[in-house]
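Bug: token stream looks shifted between consecutive jobs. Job 1:
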Amino acid sequence: MRQGLGWDHMGVEASFGLELGGEHQVSGSEETKDRQVLPAMSTPDSPDGCLLPLHLDSAALDIGLDEVDSFHEAEENVPPFLVTYNLKPLKHQGAVFLKGVPVTAQIAQTERYTSGSKVRTSTLYSVHLTHGHFTWTIKKKYKHFQELHRDLLRHKIFVSLLPFNPLSRFSETRAHVETTSSEMPSLPHASGDSSRRTSSKQKYLAEYLNVLLTTSFYRNYHAMREFLDVSQLSFLADLGPKGLEGLIVKRSGGHRIQGLNCFGHHQICYRWSKRWLVVKDSFLLYQKPDSGEISFVLLFDPGFNTDVGKKSTETKYGVRIENFSRTLILKCSNYRQARFWGQQIKQIAEEHGPDYLRVHRFDAFSPVREKTQVKWFVNGSTYFDAVADALMQAREEIFITDWWLSPEIHLKRPALKDDFRLDIILKHKAEAGVRVNVLLFKEMEMALGINSGYSKRALMLLHPNIKVMRHPDHVSSIVFLWAHHEKMVAIDQSVVFLGGLDLAYGRWDDHSYRLTDVGPGEGAQNGTPKPEVPSEESSMVPQLWLGKDYSNMIFKDWVQLDKPFEDFIDRQKNPRMPWRDVGVVIHGKAARDASRHFIQRWNFTKTIKSKYKCPSFPFLLPKSVSTADKPHYTVPGSHSAQVQLLRSVDWWSAGCSECSILNAYVRCISEAEHYVYIENQFFISCTAGGTIHNTIGDVIVQRILRAYSMNSKFRVFIVIPLIPGFEGNIEMGGGNSIQAILHFTYSTICRGDNSIISRLKEKMGDDWQVYLSVCGLRTHGSMPNGSLVTEFIYIHSKLMIVDDRKVIIGSANINDRSLMGKRDSELAVIVEDTEFITSTMDEKPYQAGRFAHSLRMDCFNTLLGALSPPCFDVSDPVADGFFADVWRSTAFNNASLYDQIFRCLPTNAVHSHRALREYTAVPNLASTSPEWCVELLTQIRGHVVEFPLHFLSTESLLPPLNSKEGVIPTDVWT
């Protein structure tokens, strides 16, 4: 079908001297050729001096049978969601309707009202339109039909005067197809309304519209689209219902973000602009009519409200729309119109988007999502592999946000080719039309060497469809201490990966936790070290960790990240630092929630940073949850569970405040019945006030004391890194940064009257060991020269498992930075099982959740080496035989063996700096008697070791005041 012209030709028509007031012939059948268009005159509804056609005659607009659509019943060909990235000016949008799907109109009712000083009443027609499964209602007066008729007639006459164009289908079909068309009766005069005449006119107007809507030549013309209140965004299934659209006048300002508004509140400080407003199920936006560019997106949230009237808007006939981040003022032509807009916007939000209009459990912005497909990942190997496969399935959008992103990271290992390198995958998808949007933390370069500027440049040079924004600007936003710490990858807003894993160097690992990588298969698992005899050539080719990916942050922090394939530590002499982490993938509505969070942050960053206000960095639109359960891709191995998205955000990071991660942690621990397993990069909390404010430590104490008073079994497992992940020589005490974190960690766990263990000892003496275990992880292997070596496994996980039924996985550490909301931004999910398997708890049958139980079993099997002969069962985590005889015993034995063989640090044998110097001066057994040590190492089970609670216990570990670490605010460390 012929589309409407792609340019505004109204001015050109005037140059032809076309007027609707005279008589002219129209093409069509012989009958219509003899018909004359009735003269136009001013009608009671017309503006002064504006001539409108008195009668509406569809025959006058007849262009022949060739241009009448023949609709067929076929599956709707829904326009792709990517049209949101390529919006055209309103007059040049062409076909916006679904192909092969009719548009029908029905005038359901009329309203009669008196406007202003007019004594005469006017009639307002409610036109109900249907297009496939999309329905909407527009309200029009008779004069609006007259204006439409005038515009369409001008359009037709202008096209008929164009020179013959052999490329025009319209010209060809007009020349070859017999043109006949049924006529439509003329409508009565606009004046003299009565109930009978109104009813008759109502019927004729509906017939008139339906005739025109069968013709694409008129249906796709911009005047018809504006009359119907439709645009390119109207019929995208992923944007939900049709919603409300139309031209409005809006006022500038209203942002609740410092620095975005004009100083003062006088009218001269405001600017009024005409915009095309689109209201969808969970957001509204407005576009510039001349360019189609989206100028702002307002997401519905618990702060959403609408109001009408001069008192709340400071504008006659004003409409006030607000959420947590902005107050938007619209100006209407009369009170009736203002009331209509205000009521309709609120009705759409409450009817179609109620999920985001209220605060949910844990004070979270998102609700609990039932029957969500979810899968856990332990370590980067399986996580990166699944991310790579999902990225390859992307059709429309990819969202990535990371604390640190390394463009050249290999997602599948061994890294024999570049096919699965992150930047290569993103480039291929961008070339295929997928839009890639990346949000990176902008670091203080003098304090942190992750070089996000290089990452941004490297990605954006790949393809125009890849956009990267960094936030915050430290000076303008006055944010110097906090970070965007969340990690997320979203595919088409339908599949979302999140957790503790940045797509960055050093993160890839598997359950082997290898210490070396100088050739295929090099490295040994715990147990008997297996000497490798690779060929001379292959042994010198690294395959798992290339260049900067081979790392040990304690030995040396990353440098020269713009040279990704150059080693920065000697892999022949220095072991790498094994990396343990946990991630999760969610689908469906929960994925929509996570994507909405990314969109909120992206749009917030675009709004506050002037360099991103250009159209090349588009506003993003959240997809509707109504289509969330039809993903085109699901990660294999996923299971159904109940999922809720959690986050820590504040006004500086996302334009609103939330600390639902902390609330979820506290409630889950408090409500735990059998055990709590915590695996985290940090463990800094409070038990009795002070400078630390998160109450996780306090609720652990309360829950253990409750179990003690009831004489019931309850276990708390805490697994954290043996040393904080900062560069420093542990043999010299580790440096000020390491000691600062150790100070607050020990203050939380065991040092001072307000520590967890001190408070427990006060009530139960040494019986606290029956309830609580604090451990770290360590492994060992051999270097290429054959020397034995050990290294602790760096725990970067942010994981809690409760009762084999609840799991929290995310990016949030257990400290105030991550949990209080006002500092670092974080993202997490709580997964609650709905599918159960028969297991054992406290030596009794127990229905364990499939998701939580399988994750906990994987953790325990790996940490305890339970699957290596002789194997043992870890299914019952609270039984005395397991907690005392397996978990605590294995941790103690492993720690003792490592101390005996390697004289490891940290250790309980060193209480002071003097003792540290003496301890490190003695050669270790691994260097003096390696053959015997190989035999001893066979007694190591898994990786779990006791956390050395007495290391440097007589020393103050706070940084000296005359050091650079000493002048940093305490909040940075906590």
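Job 2, same session, no restart:
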Amino acid sequence: MIDNSYLLGLFGQSTSWGGGAAVATPKVKTQPTPPWENARQTPQSDLLRSALAGRSLIDGQAARLDLPGASADYGKLFSLYQGLASLAAMADRAGGKSVPSTELALLNKRFDAGLTEVSGWLSQAGFDAFNLVQGTSSSLSKSTAAVARDTSKSLTGVIHEGAATDPVAAFQGDVQFRITVGKLEQTVHVDIDLNDMGAQTRSLTNVLGFINGKLEDAGVQARIGREMIPAEERSIKVGDKTVALPSGPDRWALLVRGSSVETLQFSAPATADAVYVTQGTASGNQLLKFTDGAVPSGAGIGETHWVDGRLAQDGLPEGISAIRASATDADGNVWLVADLSEGLGNQPIKGTSDVALMKFDSAGRLVFSRALGAADQASGYALAISDDGRVAVAGSVTGALDNGVAGANRGLSDSFVTVFNLKGEEQWTQRRGAAAADEATAVTFGPGGTVYVAGRAQSAMIGASAQGGWDGYLQGFSQQQAYPTAPITGGLQFTTQFGTAGEDSVASIAVDGSNLYAAGVENGRAVVRHYELNGAGQPTLLGMRDLGAMSGEIAGIAVSDGRVIVAGTTRNENLAAGATVNTAHSGGGDAFVLSMDGDLSAGGDRLTFHGGAGDDTVADVKVHDGKVWITGVADRPLGGLPEDPTMAYLSRIDPTSGVVEWTRTWKGAGDQAVTGTIAVASGGASILDRLGLPTGVIAQGDSKQLTAATSLRVGDRFYVADSNGRSRAVTIEARDTLQTLARKIEQASNMQLRVTVASEGGEVSGKDGETTLTMGGFQRLSIQARDGREGAVLRAGESGRDALAGLGLSPGFVGKTSGADTKKTYGIQLSGNLNLSGLEAAKAAGEAILAAMKVVRDAYRDLSPQNAVKKPVGQAPAYMTARIANYQAALNRLTGG
């Protein structure tokens, strides 16, 4: 008698009926042998050699199946596995010791091409028994990028601790200010003088009642309320245990309640100049606000390391790795340029680092941030604000920026300059690079709106000639617009390159009328260049001045009343030999301020050194009303280690007399205080600082354009593939919002997906018919399959222009993930940002590749007939139909049927 169970086993089937006498049956082969079994593994050295030779990583014809009639899915899985193994071999080699730089560059290039190949192959593969996508599998996908909703409420910092009926220190003394309310047809001024309260206790309850009474009498809707801020949790360490302490007293902030039909602006009759300093401490980055004493100052609630003259201390957002430039605008707002190691809040970055332009009001509150949108890496070095409110940012970018273009060499940096309008919306960007590395380190506006950019380059910039080593360069850009509604573009006017055969750089530039000055270090010597600008903005070199051995750094250059002022750090006590020295060098590295005639002649030089016997640095310099403000690290012991304590300083110096008119020093958290930049605002300090209120119009909303609110750039894109495998591109345009993008995604999915704009946070402000009105909070994309539809696959855009990364959306399948008639979906999470640029990057890439290889092995195991847990629904796959037919033919032969 023939044992049917043995015959069924030949075809991967099973039966519950028994046979006759026991028969020794061989182990039945139900799956082809996978390539990860030792006998079939390709040596890693062979994979590496083949990959570096430029051969395709995935070869569908090379996969050998040793089980006749096996599903084609096996062949595809094995081909993919071999491709991933090749990527893993490259990552392993790049993470090894003493890999030559030329080989590492080739590994990185081939790895990037291999990722692109794997991604493209996956998008076209198609599996019968399951889905395999690059990314994740989920029934709902939400973007981590979000766009802020408009709100007419504005919350200040904490101004009071204690009960609402207790006297508030910030309200004591002479407190006078004006609230200006702009309405559709008129402007209403409401003057507030707390002296008019008489002997009444100046508590939150009483003062706010007094102010709101004035506002009501003026017939405006605006009101000022209060909001309790939860006290910070406190604890103390006792031995090995952490003991919780009682919460502190109630903390209160002011809540300005505006209206959608009114604008609000605060001002004060008595003002003084404000100086903003950024600093890094052991607990994070901070924005400090100082005044020279004309406005009373005091330590704010929760502030640390206060010194007389400081008005505020505000923490900056997490994710900032460096701050290199700051400036103020005509309304007293503070602008910063920062490097990001991660996204700010609801604004993910696309690469490993990016540049952010951040705007803060005079009270230190973030108004908005703008990410450059680099696909790989970027650094910001310079910032300038024009008289008409335009903002220019300059720096370096490595990898792609616009439309996936990565420059002459993807692994080397290029210079860039971006100009924004008053709303912080990008107007134009120019990327100008040499064949070798280059970076823009200075930017300013000139006559006619020309943007001047300076920096350094290791080879010839386009339109110029190299001098050898690192050279300095100067470029000019003009702005064009074909017609009023046309896009604004920037065009290169000229490039000039200069320097020595050694290492040269430009630290700062300044424009005064038709004169342009550039200060830098050329072959170790401090050099100032003077150019004359013609009517078209083209420069002619009039002269240059060698100030002597630098032995330090130049922090900045400015022009005041025809005098050229240069400041920085030097160990050279004979800098600018022959100058009149106001204050002598004190040893170590000293700060210096040098004032020269506009033609750079030496006769009228005035030199001031500033510092102690240790090392003093100048991180930044600003010239305001003829006085020089400098900041840095003060008198650090010679030979100090990075972890040693540091003391920060801020000083104002008269460049002619050398008199230090005002100075402060302070410590920071962990005894580390390292300042970064300075910005000065005329009349930016007043009684409003004590109240936490900003000067200028309070912003009630921000741009809703995705290119402003996220790190997306015009031309970024991703793909949506419907259930038929048809893939359509979704491309970002200049005026796209969440709403327009949602519609694009639905159309690209052939209406398989339902995309909504989901609101989070905020509060209901009223109703318009059946529509609930909400203000505040954020909105983000929410994607799911439509009822009765399978869903679709989101696929990343090409390397350098992937919009999914900027939206914070994961590539992969979005749709039904459960149910008897639902195919299982496996996700291989391989980010397009993986690279082999360094040891850490290679390690991360290797771990991601190994995780992807495990997914392939999981899919293989689940294909095994023994692991099938669901009855097939619908038509059987072709390989199963063939197997059943073979089984039936065998039965017919054995039974004579």
